[in-house]
Each structure stands twice: as structure tokens, then as C-alpha cells.
Amino acid sequence: VKGTLDSGFHWIIPFIDTAHIMDIQEQKEEVEVSSASSDLQTVSTKVALNYHLQADKINDLYREVGVKYKIKVIDPAIQESMKAATAKFTAEQLITKREEVKEVAKANLATRLIERYIIVDDLSIINFDFSAEFNKAIEAKVTAEQQALASKNKLEQVKYEAEQRTTQAKA
Q1: Cα 64 to Cα 108: distance, rounded to the nearest angstrom
Q2: What is the pTM of this model?
Q3: Average pLDDT over residues 57-63
Q4: Torsions phi, psi of 18, nearest 5?
Q5: Which of 8, 56, 95, 136 is least crowded, fewest Cβ atoms below 10 Å from its Cβ?
Q6: Cβ–Cβ < 8 Å for 126, 47
Q7: Percentage, residues of the chain above pLDDT 70
Q8: Do 69 and 112 meet the contact criterion of CB atoms below 8 Å apart?
Q9: CA quadruple 21, 26, 30, 35: dihedral positive or negative?
Q10: pLDDT digit string (tens) for 140-163?
């Protein structure tokens, strides 16, 4: 690696010099990650990472990793960071504390990628997906809570009607 060239026209000697184009603009990488929550629920997460390469370190990145840095560095780093982040939260917390999960994963990912001259601009959690059994259990829990609330309301209504009848009888 002799150095980097700015955008524009440049002279290179055919068969002696070659130029590898590496994009330093912000790029997006989407990855599916399977992991487990702290309560051992299987979680499938779709993540989008926005990043860019350090322009002044492109030649080091090319020398150490090459042009397949997405496959060699970014995808494994996303996988590991998301698995570490989801393992710190329960399945319920993954949904209710989504922003916190994102920040933990983003901080971990930024630390890992800056070592390879890749700067994390943003990390987005597109979707959390749980197993079918877990989704059914959540649905059953919500249904039971709604039925209990409806029964409580009906009991309050019966008590109120009884008080009205008592008051009318006294009158």
C-alpha cells in the first residue's frame, strides 16, 4: 500500500499500480442476530448499523483487513455486541427498555470497531422477535389480566347496584 488518493482523476501505471476503491461515506449494514435474554428466552433481532471508515486510516484498514471488512469485522462485531447486550436484559425488558438495550449494544460495538478504523454513526434495533411459545404465553397473560380486570369492574358494579337498592329501600 503506497497511500490513499483523494476523489478525482489520478494517473496509475497499468499492470504495475492498482487502485482499490473504498467508500468513506456513511454506509448501512443490516444483520439478523439470534441470541438469548437473561431469562433464557430465544430472541431474534434485526439490527441496522450506520457507519463510516476513517479516511485517514484507510490504508491501514486495507493492509490489515482488506476490502471484505464487512464480512470479516463488522458482521461478527454486531453479532457479539447484540448477544452481549440482550443477555443483560429479560425478554420483557428488551421491549420496555429498548433504548437502553440499543445504547449498551452501540457502546460495545463502537469500542470494538474503532480498533479497526470503523466509526459507528448509529445503531438501530429494527425488530425483536421471540419464539412462538413465548408469544403465546404473553398473549395468555394479557388475556388473563384483562379478564381479571373485567371481573373486578363487574363486582364493583354489582356492589354499587346493591347500595342503590339499599338506599331506595330505606327511603
Answers
A1: 21
A2: 0.73
A3: 91
A4: -130, 150
A5: 8
A6: yes
A7: 99
A8: no
A9: positive
A10: 787 888 888 888 888 888 898 888
